[in-house]
Specification:
Elements: E1 17-20, H1 33-36, E2 55-59, E3 68-72, E4 75-77, E5 80-88, E6 96-106, E7 112-123, E8 129-136, E9 143-155, E10 158-165, E11 170-172
Antiparallel strand pairs: 1-10, 2-3, 3-5, 4-5, 5-8, 6-7, 6-9, 9-10, 9-11
Length: about 180
């Protein structure tokens, strides 16, 4: 099963923003993924019984290099829940880019909890920036997961930001 497929029909509505970057330092990392993600409660989310391999890919709105952010479905990997998110398909290298991936796990009463978070950044890099977040599975019962991704590229002093989520929640146990 390949986890590198992307379903364009399942693109999640994301908020896209273009703002002027601070001029004081080219290495400014304000608005990094760790600052943007927060634990929140979500309700009315439903999950399919079996995990899938599809994911979401969306253009980071308005950026002149055509960079796209993506978040794949959370899946079982080596006895751990795992998700990949990142930035790809840039036609030229952005001066700075940062991507973050988080795994959210459904809890009781519709409350979602962050199970794992990881981020990565690069300067003047044309190659795909991929981030992998992994969480230890604490038991063998079925759990429901959703992956979230944060994507930012800086081009010509302007930050282009997008957030994506897995196209569906996935449900699996660590002994699956």
């Amino acid at each position: 099963m390949s986890i590198r497929k992307f379903g364009l029909a399942a693109i999640v509505a994301a908020t896209f923003i273009a703002v002027s970057a601070p001029t004081a330092s080219a290495s400014d990392t304000s608005g990094t993924a760790e600052e943007v993600f927060s634990d929140s409660s979500y309700s009315q989310m439903r999950a399919e019984q079996n995990p899938g391999s599809m994911g979401v890919r969306a253009l980071i709105n308005g950026n002149p290099y055509g960079c796209a952010g993506y978040t794949e479905r959370v899946h079982l990997s080596g006895g751990m829940s795992s998700v990949h998110a990142g930035i790809r398909d840039c036609r030229s290298a952005p001066s700075y880019q940062v991507a973050g991936a988080e795994i959210m796990k459904a809890g009781w009463f519709g409350v979602w909890h962050r199970s794992a978070f990881n981020s990565a950044s690069a300067t003047n890099r044309l190659a795909r920036l991929d981030v992998n977040a992994k969480a230890v599975c604490g038991n063998t019962s079925l759990q429901t997961y959703r992956g979230n991704g944060y994507h930012r590229v800086t081009i010509g002093g302007t930050n282009y930001v997008a957030r994506t989520s897995s196209d569906v929640e996935t449900r699996f146990g660590c002994d699956s």
